[in-house]
Amino acid sequence: MKRRDFFKTSATLGVAALTFDKLQAAIETKTMMKETVSDMVAVMGGEPAQLLDMALKEMGGIRKYVKKGQSVVIKPNIGWDKRPDFAANTNPELIKALVEHCIRAGAGKVTVFDHTCDNWQKCYENSGIRKAAEAAGATVVPANDEVYYREVKLPQARILKSAKIHQALLEADVWFNVPVLKNHGGAQMSIAMKNYMGIVWDRTYFHANNLQQCIADICTLPKKPALNIVDAYRCMRKNGPQGRSVADTRVLKTLIVSKDIVAADTAAIGLFNQVQPMDIKKVGHIANGEKLKLGTQNIDKLNVKRIKI
Amino acid sequence: MKFNTLKTIRLTLALLFFTPLLLYFCDFTNILPPLLHGLAHIQLVPAIMLGSVGILTALFLLTVLFGRIYCSVICPLGVLQDIIAWFAGRSRKKNGKKRRFAYAKPQTALRYSLLVACVLFLIFGITAPVLYLDPYSNFGRIAVNLFRPLAMEGNNLINWIALKFNNYGFYHVTIYTITGLSLTIAAVALTVVALTAFLRGRLFCNAVCPVGSLLGIISKFSVFRIVLDPSKCTSCGRCEKACKSQCIDSKEKTADTSRCVACFNCLNKCKSDGIAYRFALPFSRKQELHDNPHTSRRSFLLTGVGAMATLPFIPAWAKTATADRTKLTPITPPGSKSLTHFKKHCTACHLCITHCPQQILKPAGFNFGWEYAFKPHLTFYESAFCNYECTVCSEICPNGAIKRLTAEEKSVTQIGIARFDIERCVVYSDRTSCGACSEHCPTRAVKMEPYEGALTLPRVYDELCIGCGGCESICPVRPVKAINIQAVDVHQTAKKEQDEQIEEVDGDRLDFGF
What we know:
heterodimer, A: alpha/beta, ten-stranded mixed sheet, two-stranded antiparallel ribbon, 21% strand, B: mainly alpha, Alpha-Beta Plaits, 2 domains, two-stranded antiparallel sheet, elongated
């Protein structure tokens, strides 16, 4: 063993031992060592599963995020009773691929849910997500009733000081935030930050008390997703969040993955702007999120990997 | 005691009809096959309301051939009474006493007055008397308002236990669709029916029930019937004691077939072979034709006088019923065509209330007028509105009060129109983004239009609105929402927004954009 390697290893072990109770810190230490891992990966030009494979590889592989025996929650957008080609919900193939990755990494349990807007059973069926997720070995659980939610304090939030969060997410070891890229009538855009609304019970409060701030506030939930995986295979260009017809969608065949939720949303809007103009300033929750130190809009500062297949 | 084949067949058939219908009325998960609503369709009152000639003919033939088999097998309230009486009888047996019946005089005036009242009111388009007396509708209300909540709470208990073990195999249901009034009417009906069943057998069916009375008229002439053989009968009274219709007079050696519900309980009680269910021509026996001529004539007259007395009032009542225009107008289910059509055909069996996947059909109180009491109307609350392409209620309504719709028709059936109140809207009052109403609108009837800066304000396009309540259900303003559905009395066909042409993106030119 080279002397330099020996020192490196000892130092790492030392750091890891010191912060053993903070697994997060240990992972970050490891990230710093492996300079190949990017802050953000965008992959374009493939099928959903293929895009995910490439992106995860660039992000250090699924095993970096999911350890053997851990329970995992995957939170797609299943808000609407729409077919997959409306792009109102996350692509079921992407969810299927992600569940498969988690199971291969040895996840003890993979759970999928969303607090839907339309009738939850219809959303779960017609989005194709229940079938896809279950086929890959996930458990798809309901989120349609207050009994599934538990009050959580949000000390960093400006307005939304507490919220009722789905217990499956609170109990999970790891969770992935898997939104679809959409236009949105109220919030202007619905991407990773907006997708948090599906883990919350009382969303009326958001609408009644400054929606754009509340969306940023809910993202201060201490339990952060391991990754934000933005499905832009097919995006909803306008008439969001439900869309009127397939004519409202555009096929972009892209996936954006990042730990930084603000950066992920910023990048996604950049991509979106090529098919439909959208001023990021109008999407107030992104700037609000940056103010709450949830991430950065300055993507150039980050180590971004762009891959075209 | 001899084996009673006919009674065994009757019991088997009754349970085969009753159990699925009971379960169907309690099936809040919609897992039972939809074809079970056929069991509701074959009920007499729904068949009359729907005007189903086929079912009415079949029921007529069944009765004219075999007597009131309907009351013992098909009618769920009849079977429910038998079940209650059976349980009650069992508990009594422990005390050493067994319940016995004795012949009772027919309540001819009462039963036919009620029947005539029901018919007359129906002719004038008023369903109220039928609504309160129809056995099927009463059974429905008992099942939906009393039994279904028990099933739902049972489910919630199981779900609660399962959740402790991190098992999500069940899901919690919250009961929204029961009102104090609907619970009361169901409880009253159950109490009345249970008490009469326990004390006087089928008294309800033979004194109150208009279906029983109507079928009783037909069963007077039934081809197969209970007959006492005067040459063999010793007037021992064994059959009489077993007769829950209290229609066997062992002293006179007669059975009143208009009250007999063909339960066959009497058949194996006779020790001398003096009673039989067999082919017998109507009026072949003297006693039956002249069964107490004075009472029947008196009853007939009484009934006639009673009916004549109410007659002049009915048109006036009908007028108040249709002209009852309080400010509130109920939103009637899609497929019900108009408020008038719905009021005329619905007898409040509450089957649609059980099966509405969104639990937005709720029994009304007296707030929409007495003619609308207990009938379902649409209510919207948090995340609950009429699913865009859902046609469940229209598929199962046995009365034809809600006519069948295809998903295509449903998605343009306008049952109401959204009314936007800018003064209440948070975009106007708090200057914040919202758009929840537009977000939930499945037809794009509520559009967010430029307001101030980045703010957008909802605007309703009436011709696109179907009144599903998506907007109202999600509007965050309390207590009165900023957008509300106003019913339309006669349902209209909404326009569909035209789809745009799909412009293909030039894949080569597409880049990351960041």
